[in-house]
Every structure is written in C-alpha cells, then in structure tokens.
Amino acid sequence: MSPSQPLVTRHLAISGRVQGVWFRESMRREAERLGVTGWVRNARDGSVEAVVQGEESALAAIVAWSRKGPPAGRVDDVVVTPAEGSFTSFERRSNA
Questions:
Q1: Terminus-to-terminus CA distance in the chain, angstroms?
Q2: Which band of pLDDT confidence, cut at 50, 70 and 90, is reported for residue 3?
Q3: Could you tell me the pTM of the whole model?
Q4: CA dist list (Å): 89 to 17, 51, 71
Q5: Hey, where are the domains in the chain?
Q6: Which residues are catalytic?
Q7: Hey, which residues does 9 pair with through a beta bridge?
Q8: Residue 46 carries which DSSP code?
Q9: Per-residue model confidence as pLDDT tens digits over 34-63
Q10: The CATH number of domain 8-86 is 3.30.70.100
Q11: Helix or strand (DSSP H, E) at 40
Q12: Region 68-96: what's the mean pLDDT?
C-alpha cells in the first residue's frame, strides 16, 4: 500500500447460501491476495459479515469478489456500510 492512499474501512453483510460453502476461508485468501486487512465471520442469522480495510481500489475488488463468493456459494445481497477499526492482517473469526 502506498502511504499517499488513505485506508478505507467498510462493513459487509453478505446474505444468500454463504455458510457451509467455504466462504470465510475463500474470502481470507482473496483479502490476503489483495492486501486487504480486517476479518470475516459467520453471523447467527445465516449470513456472513466482514470488516475490510485497505486502499479504495483493493476494497472495490474485495467487495466485487464478495458479490460472487466461492463456487459452492450463492450470494443474494451484499450491504456495504462505513466501519471503523485498525487491522494488521485478515483473519477468519469463529461464529458470532
């Protein structure tokens, strides 16, 4: 990441067939590939939630990826909202 690019942080609420399809691990790998930090976890309602942080172009790429998800999944909707936090890596967290 270049120091001239500000970091942006967003919360993603991802719904559809997104649990039990390797979504969290796939997203963790994609985030690492893109240089995005934050976390991802399963939510109690069957959705997946994530907080992602990085340069605007990297966030656009991870949001685009989350709209498709892994091959076994089916994403119906992704709601993106502003978030706060500071992260040094991307982690797959246990369920909410």
A1: 30
A2: low
A3: 0.92
A4: 26, 11, 24
A5: 8-86
A6: 24, 42
A7: 53
A8: S
A9: 999 999 999 999 999 999 999 999 999 999
A10: yes
A11: strand 37-42
A12: 95
